[in-house]
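ok so I'm stuck.
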Amino acid sequence: MLIFVSCLVIFVYGMLSSLLGTIIPGLGDRLHLTNSEIGLIGLAQGLGLAGMSVVAGAFMDRQGKKIGITLGLCATIAGLLLLSNASSVIQIATAMLILGCGGSIVIVGANAITSDVADKRRAAALNFLNVFSGLGGLATPFIAGNFLNSNPSRITLFGIIATVCVLVVVLLTPMGKPQRSSGTPSGESAGVFNSPALYLLSAVTLLYTACEFGIWNWLPKFLITSGMPTAIALNILSLGFACGLLCGRIAATTLLWRISPLKVTTVCSILMVVATYLVLRPMSQWMTGVVVFFTGVAMAPVFPTTIAIVGKLFKKQSATAIGFTITCGFSGLMISSPVIGWISGPNPLGVGRGLLLLPILSAVISLILISSRNLLRREEERISVTNGALAQSRA
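replied:
not stuck anymore, here's the structure
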């Protein structure tokens, strides 16, 4: 039951992931937003995501994951209500900041619950969980483009209704109470942050999130400014990228039963370099959809599998370690959206130039994973020995 609830919760996060890119064309036309202003709105979302995830993991380790997820969903509803009535850049940015805070708590809680429940098959379970993130990301632009006439007010209303339904399920679901340690929690916490593996994996999530949100937030605008109709651009985001994420995570769930998480993440990061570069090349609408789909497939396992590696290394305080890793990931959103907007410049056709940042960041992810393989293995052995010594000292 807890896995089912986690899937519903992360579905809401997936909806939020594609929300900004979905509503920006409509809001941009109505409020005459520039590329720089869109970048600042993305920065506000990133500030909320990164800032709240600093404390979300530790809060849920102490107070319980149910309380944290409930607060996150309530913040999501509040942000959507504000966004539905926004009439200025400041109001939109404030709404996205609140949505970022809610989304941060939601994703940390959902990943932490699944990491704890599915200990032996953590990587496969987290990829399965994040399939529902892809479903949420698919739902928002698909429904917006085909049923809501790309109307920002209708899109946010749809998000509010879906989030309220999930909140009711969470409130009715019993969850275990937080474990209160009588030993030396400060020593364990220090052990988490003394490991270089945590910082390497956090750097991977930072760069990956910059790439993923670069596509969520900027791909529709790039396609529209290239001459593509809005409805088709949104369908490519949903049926292409979001569906690719979904299919890639389903495939990864099976692969990770036979292949190590580190190998899967490394290969996918290399494929990201090629795919994100090809997305920016001129081609037909049909070919663009195909390439965007395979970009989603390539990117799909990187985030959840990296989180699974973190959960495997830091079992004692999984929410704290996962929360820190996700914080660094959302810092990538804070960097990518403003930088893409700045590189794009005032000319709407400059978005393609700004999106060249994505294959560059993908290449850096590959270099980090390839160069740190031996270090991650040593860290796993070291942390296992440290945890065993702590357990003996308590006995």
